[in-house]
Write a structure and sequence with these properties.
396 residues; alpha+beta; Cytochrome p450; five-stranded mixed beta sheet; two-stranded antiparallel ribbon; 9 strands; binds protoporphyrin IX containing FE
Length: 396
C-alpha cells in the first residue's frame, strides 16, 4: 500500500518487541520518525510529538472500530469509540476518578488495603514476591472499591482482568481464552447488575454509581466497569514492582527519596516514563495524512509507540537512564488526547502516596533477592516476578 519512498522497517518482529523493544526503537529512529512495517501491516511512530499529534487529532486518526478486539472482549467500551460517543461516557466516569475524590474518598481505602496486604506479605517472610504477593492483591483490591464492587473477592477481580486482557490479545482465537472470557463476562455482569440494583438512587462515589447517575444505560455501565477492571489491575501492579526494581538499581536515588530530597511522586513519574506498562496504542488514518514527509494513506493502521516516545532524545536528556530528579516533562505513559487514562490519579495516589512509602518504612532494607530481573512483554510490559528480602529480627 505505501509508496516505495516510505522508510521501511521489514525486520521488526513481535518477538523482538516483547523481549526488549528499546534497541528496536533506537533502530527505528535511525530509519526515520515514521516507518512502515509491512510484516506488521502498520506504520510505526517513535517521536513524542508525532504520537501526541495522532492522539490529539481524531478528525485525522480514529480508534479502529471494525472488528474491535476490545468490543469482542468486553462489549461497547469507551476506549473503542470516537467522539462524540466517547466523550459522553468519559464524562460519566470522570467524577469517580478526580484527584479530589481520590484524596477524600479512595485514599483511605488504599491505605487500609496496603496495611492489610503488607501484614500478610510480612508473614510470608523474605523471598516473598513483591509482584505476585503485594502489588497484585493490592491493585485488585483498590480497583474493586473504585469500580464499585467492594464485596467481590480480589481474586475474582484479578481473574476477570486477566481473562479480558487475554481475550483482547486473542488474535489466534484460542477457544480456551474465549471460554475464560465468556465466564469472566458472565460473572462480572452478574456482580455489576447486583450492584446497580443496590446503588440505584444512591450518592455512592464509585464508577458504577456515577455512571448510573449520569444516565448511562446498563449495557454501557457494564462494559465500562469491565474496561476499568481490564486496565486497572495489571498496569498499577507492574508500575509498583518496576519502581522497587528501579530504586534498588539506584540506591543513591532511593536514599535521596527516603531522606525527603525527592518525592515518591517524582519516582512514579520517572518509573512510568522509563518503563511504561503499556507500549503501544493503535489508531487508523481516516484520510491520507502526511507526517514528517511520509504519507500514510487513508485506512492505514498506525502504532503510537509509547515506550519509544517516552525515551525520545529530543525531549529527554539521556533518555535510557532512570533519573528521579529529571525535570518534569510531559510523557506518554498514560496516553494523551481524549482517551488519556482515566485512572492515572488513582494509580499515582495508590502507588506513590501510599504503597511505596509504606513498604520502605515497613520493610527496612527492602531490596530484590537477585539482580537479574528481566522485563517482558510489549503490549503490556513488566516484571513477571520480583522476589524481595528485607531486614527481620533474625537478620538484624
Ligand atoms: C499506572 C497505571 C496505568 C497506566 C500506565 C495506564 C495507561 C493507560 C493508557 C495508555 C490508556 C490509553 C490512553 C489512550 O488511548 O490515549 C488508558 C486508558 C484508560 N485507563 Fe488507564 N492506566 C493505568 C491505570 C488505570 C486505572 C487504575 C484505571 C481505573 C481506575 C484506568 C482506567 C482507564 C480507562 C477507563 C481508560 C480508557 C479511557 C478512555 O477511553 O477515555 N487506568 N490507560
Amino acid at each position: 500500500m505505501p509508496v516505495n519512498t516510505v522508510p521501511t522497517a521489514d525486520w521488526v518482529t513481535l518477538e523482538q518487541l516483547a523481549e526488549d523493544p528499546y534497541p528496536v526503537y533506537d533502530r527505528l529512529r535511525a530509519v526515520g520518525p515514521v516507518t512502515w512495517a509491512p510484516q506488521l501491516g502498520r506504520f510505526l511512530l517513535t517521536g513524542l510529538d508525532d504520537c501526541r499529534f495522532v492522539e490529539a487529532n481524531e478528525d485525522l486518526f480514529e480508534i479502529e472500530q471494525e472488528d474491535s478486539p476490545l468490543k469482542r472482549a468486553m462489549g461497547e467500551v469507551m476506549l473503542s469509540k470516537n467522539e462524540p460517543e466517547h466523550g459522553v461516557e468519559r464524562a460519566a466516569i470522570n467524577p469517580a476518578l478526580r484527584p479530589k475524590v481520590i484524596a477524600e474518598v479512595w485514599r483511605a481505602h488504599f491505605e487500609a488495603h496496603a496495611r492489610q496486604v503488607l501484614e500478610r506479605f510480612r508473614g510470608l517472610g523474605p523471598g516473598a514476591d513483591i509482584n505476585a504477593d503485594f502489588a497484585l492483591p493490592y491493585a485488585a483490591m483498590n480497583l474493586g472499591v473504585v469500580v464499585g464492587l467492594p464485596d467481590v473477592p480480589w481474586t475474582d477481580v484479578q481473574r476477570w482482568s486477566l481473562a479480558f486482557i487475554a481475550a483482547v490479545a486473542n488474535v489466534q482465537e484460542d477457544p480456551r481464552v474465549s471460554e475464560a472470557n465468556r465466564i469472566a463476562n458472565a460473572e462480572a455482569d452478574a456482580a455489576i447488575d447486583r450492584r446497580m440494583a443496590e446503588l440505584a438512587g444512591s450518592a455512592d462515589p464509585s464508577m458504577i454509581s456515577v455512571m448510573l447517575r449520569a444516565g448511562l444505560p446498563p449495557d454501557l455501565v457494564r462494559a465500562n466497569a469491565k474496561l476499568a477492571i481490564s486496565g486497572g489491575v495489571n498496569e498499577p501492579q507492574h508500575v509498583l514492582t518496576s519502581g522497587v526494581h528501579a530504586l534498588s538499581q539506584h540506591p543513591d536515588q532511593l536514599a535521596a527519596v527516603r531522606a525527603g530530597e525527592y518525592t515518591y511522586t517524582q519516582v512514579f513519574d520517572e518509573v512510568v516514563r522509563w518503563m511504561p506498562p503499556i507500549h503501544t496504542l493503535m489508531r487508523r488514518a481516516r484520510v491520507d495524512v502526511e507526517l514528517n514527509g511520509v504519507t500514510m494513506p487513508a485506512g492505514s493502521l498506525v502504532w503510537i509507540l509509547l515506550g519509544a516516545a517516552n525515551r525520545d532524545p529530543r525531549h529527554f536528556e539521556q533518555p535510557d537512564r532512570f533519573v528521579v530528579s529529571r525535570p518534569r516533562r510531559p510523557h506518554l505513559a498514560f496516553g494523551s488526547g481524549p482517551h488519556i487514562c482515566a485512572g492515572s490519579w488513582a494509580a499515582r495516589s495508590s502507588i506513590a502516596e501510599v504503597a511505596w512509602p509504606l513498604l520502605y518504612d515497613g520493610l527496612p532494607g527492602l531490596t530484590p533477592v537477585d539482580d537479574d530481573a528481566r522485563f517482558h512483554g510489549f503490549f503490556f510490559r513488566g516484571l513477571p516476578g520480583l522476589p524481595v528480602t528485607w531486614e527481620t529480627e533474625n537478620t538484624k
